[in-house]
Fold each of these.
Amino acid sequence: MKRKDIVEFVIEATEFGGKAYGRLDGVKINVKHGIKGQKVRAIIKRIKKNQAEARIVEVLEASPLEAEATCKHFGNCGGCFQQSIHYDNQLQEKEENVKKLFEEQGLNDVNWLPIEGSPITFGYRNKMEFSFGDEEKGGRLALGMHKRGRHHDIVTVDECLIMDEDYRKILKTILEYFTNKKIPFYHSMRHVGYLRHLVVRKAHYTGEILVNLVTTTQLQPDISSLVKELKTLELKGDLVGFLHTFNDNLSDTVQSDKTDILLGRDYIIEKQLGLQFKISAFSFFQTNTLAAEKLYSIVRDFLGDANNQIVFDLYCGTGTIGQIVASNAQKVIGIEIVEDAVKAARENAALNGLNNCEFIAGDVGQEVKKINYKPDIIILDPPRAGIHPKALKDVISFGADRIVYVSCNPKTLVKDLKDLVSSGYTIVRAKCMDMFPHTGHIETVVLMSRVKE
Ligand SMILES: C[S@@+](CC[C@H](N)C(=O)[O-])C[C@H]1O[C@@H](n2cnc3c(N)ncnc32)[C@H](O)[C@@H]1O
C-alpha cells in the first residue's frame, strides 16, 4: 500500500472525535467520519509502517446501523456526520468510545451509570454560528457551515434541522439581502472582504432571539434597511436584539473589536431548572437548553448534599451550575475568564435572588490560589483543552472532599482524572450525557472523592 492508492475496506470501529478505522493487508487505515459497518472506498494520504491515514471518497455499502438521514444537507455539511445512525446506536457508540478512553488510561472498574440522550434530537440548538463564503471558488455568496472535509467551502444550510424554523428564516433573509447588494464575504486567506459570521441565539423557554452580524471594517455599507426587514420578519420567537460586531482580526474566530447595538439589547434571557439566565453575545452557554437541564440535574445529583458546604464552580461561564446548586450551599465561588460572562453571572445571581454567590473574573490558574476559603466541593467544567497542569495542582492542593468534573472532551478528561487519581482521589461514579445529537460530541460527568488517609 502506498500514498494515493485507492483502497476498499469495511469500517471496523469508531473513536471519539469523529475518527474511524478499518484494516487491510495488516494495515490499520484511519479515516474521518466513517460509520461502523460501512464499506468505503478511500484514498491513502499517508502511510507509516502498518498505520495509514486516508480520506473516504465513496461509501460503497451503508452500515446496518444506518437509516435514511432526514436533513437535506446531510453528507455535504460538516455539521452532523452521524445523522444517518439511529439515535440509540449513536448513544451506544459514544458511550463505548468514552469508556475505551478511560480504559486506555488505566481507569478501570469505573461505576458507570447509563448514558442519557437529549430530550429532543432535532431543533435543539439555542445558538448557531454561521460563516459567510462560497460553495466553490468564485461561486455565489453562501452562508452556513463548512463543507464536510473542506476548510474554505461553505454550504448554505437554509434547511438545517438541528436548528428551528426561525433560524432558517433569519439566515435566508440575511443571505438574500447581501446577495442582492453584491456585498463580498471576507476571504480568510487573502484577508479581503466584508462579511464574516452570523451568530444567532434563541432561548428555548422565552423565545428571545439575538442576531449578531460580524464583519470587517473594510467597507461601510448602510445596513439599516436589513434591520427594518428583520424587524418585520414573521417569527415564532421574539427578536430582542440585532448587533453589528466589527472584527479585523486575522484569526477565523468570532471576536469583537467593537460591537454596536442596532436594535434592542445585547442579551437574551433563558431559563434553566426554574432559574433565569441573562446570556450576552459572547458568553458561553450550553447550546442545547433541554439537554443542559438534564446535565445540570446529573451534576446536582452527583454533588449530593451541599448543605452548609463551600462550593467552587471553576470555569463557570454565566454561573449556571453554581447557581443551580446555590440554594442548598453555604457559599458558591465561581471563576471565569470572559469578563462579560462574569458580569452576567453576577446579574443572574441577583435576578435569581441568590446572595451567597461570588464570581471572580480571571484565569482559574491565576485566581484560584488567591481565594481565602477552603472548598468542600469543587465543580470543574473546563473548555475542550482541559485544565492547565498548574491549575490542576492548585485545585488538588485544596484537598476538597468531593470533585465533580464536567467535560466536553473525554480525551483531556481522562488525562486530568489520571492526575487526580494519582493525587489521592477515587472515581465514585461516571455518566455520559448527550448534548449534541448527530455530531461526535459528548459530555461526561464524573464524581470523585478524596481518599482519607
Ligand atoms: C465548558 S464552558 C463551561 C461553562 C459553564 N460551567 C456552563 O455550564 O455554562 C468552559 C468555560 O471556561 C471558560 N474558560 C476557558 N479558559 C478559562 C480559564 N483559563 N480560566 C477561567 N475560565 C476559563 C470559558 O470562557 C467557558 O465559559
Note: The first strand starts at residue 6 and ends at 10.
Amino acid sequence: MEQLKQRILTEGRVKSGNVLKVDSFLNHQMDIHLFDEMGKAFKERYKEDEITKIVTIEASGIGIACIVARHFNVPVVFAKKSESRNLDGDLYTSPIYSFTHQKEYMVRVSKKFLSAEDKVLVIDDFLANGKALIGLLDIIKQSGATLVGAGIAIEKGFQGGGDALREQGIRIESLAIIDEMGEDFIKFRD
Ligand SMILES: O=P(O)(O)OC[C@H]1O[C@H](OP(=O)(O)OP(=O)(O)O)[C@H](O)[C@@H]1O
Ligand SMILES: O=c1[nH]c(=O)c2nc[nH]c2[nH]1
C-alpha cells in the first residue's frame, strides 16, 4: 500500500534490535484516516470470504482492528495480556512472547466470543517473528473457528515469521513488507 510505505519512509525511525518506530501514525498517535485506507485495502483482499469476526491482540492491534472492522461490519475480539476481575468464565489461552515488552504473556479470550461458527480474520499492526500471530492462531484453533487469514499493516519480512507461516499454508496479507532496514534506509518487498 503506497500511502503506508510513504509514511514509513518519511516518519519511520529504525532503532537498535530490529525495531521500527512508527509511533507518530501507527501505534501511539494513530492516524485514523490512514487506518480507514488500510480497512479498504483489507476489505478488497478479503471481500469474498464472509468474515464474521476480527481477532487481534492488545495493545497496538486494537485501534487498527476497530477501524478495519467497520469495513467488514463485524465485531472485534482482542486477546487480553493480563488477568482481570472483568474477565470471567471459560477462557481460551495461549502463551505469547511479546516483541517489544520482551516477556511472555499468557493471553486470554473468553469462550463466549469465539466459536466454531466463526470465520476469522486476524488483524495486527506488526508481524515480526510471528509469535503474536502463532498464539492467536492457537486460540482460534481451540475455538473451532475457521481461520480465513491475517491482515498486517507492517511485516518485517527479514525476521521470517510471515514467510514461515505462509509455508504452512496460512494466508497473510501485509500492506508493507520490509525486507531490509538500517539506520538510513528501508527496503520494501515488491
Ligand atoms: O511477530 P511478533 O514477533 O510476535 O511481533 C508482532 C507483535 O509485536 C507487537 O506486540 P507487542 O506485544 O510487542 O506490543 P504492544 O503491546 O504494543 O502490542 C505487535 O503489536 C504484534 O502483536
Ligand atoms: O513499534 C513496533 N516496531 C517494531 O519494529 C515491531 N516489531 C514487532 N512489533 C513492533 N512494534
Note: The chain has one domain: 2-82+90-188.
